[in-house]
Design goal:
Protein name: DUF1349 domain-containing protein
CATH architecture: Sandwich
Strand content: over 45%
Order of helices and strands: EEEEEEEEEEEEEHEE
Helix content: under 10%
InterPro entries: ConA-like_dom_sf (IPR013320), DUF1349 (IPR009784)
Number of domains: 1
Shape: globular
Radius of gyration: 15 Å
Structural class: mainly beta
Distance between the termini: 36 Å
Largest sheet: 8 strands, antiparallel
CATH topology: Jelly Rolls
Pfam families: DUF1349 (PF07081)
Length: about 200
């Protein structure tokens, strides 16, 4: 079922397990089920995720952009997370997570090119933080912020071919790899049709 958010210039479609996605009063909510994750172990032989996680995605408009949201996760088990998600191909996708890793809320990233990598960036306070996913040219950038004003650079990377990156889908994901489920919410959602002026100056 298609979901339309007034803050976004594109519609969203659900992928993966059912999350019961809903939107009300500016807040998007959903729930990952038990042991749901989207991750391809880097040491494994398979290029398929050992599990799957609910996603709500739509086609990003052409050109540079920023997708911003304040995310919240109902942490109950290790690696529960609320995620901004980027998809450019069946085996090329990326996650920017507010994750319980495993004892402290942490900004984490995963970039999958066949197999996934896994990077913990820094610990944050509480169960809520701002996340930002940007496209700048043929590359993508991840930032995080405590207040939605001053942004900390997390990562910049290329993913897929230029043609794939130009046709990227973006949106939201919930995961609970080791637990019995995780409630997530996204508010203060915003879309900007431009890249950040400088990836590393806090803007």
């Amino acid at each position: 079922m298609t979901t339309t958010l007034p803050e976004l210039p594109f519609a969203l479609e659900p992928f993966g397990p059912d999350a019961g996605w809903s939107y009300e009063n500016g807040v998007l909510t959903g729930r990952a089920g038990a042991r749901q994750d989207r991750f391809v172990p880097p040491g494994g032989d398979s290029l398929e995720s050992v599990s799957d996680a609910p996603r709500l995605l739509g086609p990003a408009p052409e050109g540079d952009f920023q997708l911003i949201a304040r995310v919240r996760a109902g942490f109950a088990a290790a690696f529960d997370a609320a995620v901004l998600y980027l998809h450019v191909g069946d085996h090329e996708w990326a996650k920017l997570c507010l994750e319980l890793s495993p004892d402290h809320p942490t900004i984490c990233t995963v970039v999958t090119r066949g197999h996934s990598d896994d990077v913990n960036s820094f610990v944050v306070e509480g169960d809520s933080h701002w996340l930002r996913l940007s496209r700048t040219g043929h590359s993508f950038a991840f930032h995080a912020s405590a207040d939605g004003e001053k942004w900390t650079f997390v990562r910049v990377f290329a993913l897929g071919t230029p043609e794939q990156s130009a046709a990227a889908s973006i949106g939201f994901l919930a995961q609970s790899p080791t637990g019995e489920g995780c409630e997530v919410s996204f508010d203060r959602i915003a879309f900007r049709p431009a890249a950040p002026a400088d990836l590393r100056d806090g803007s």
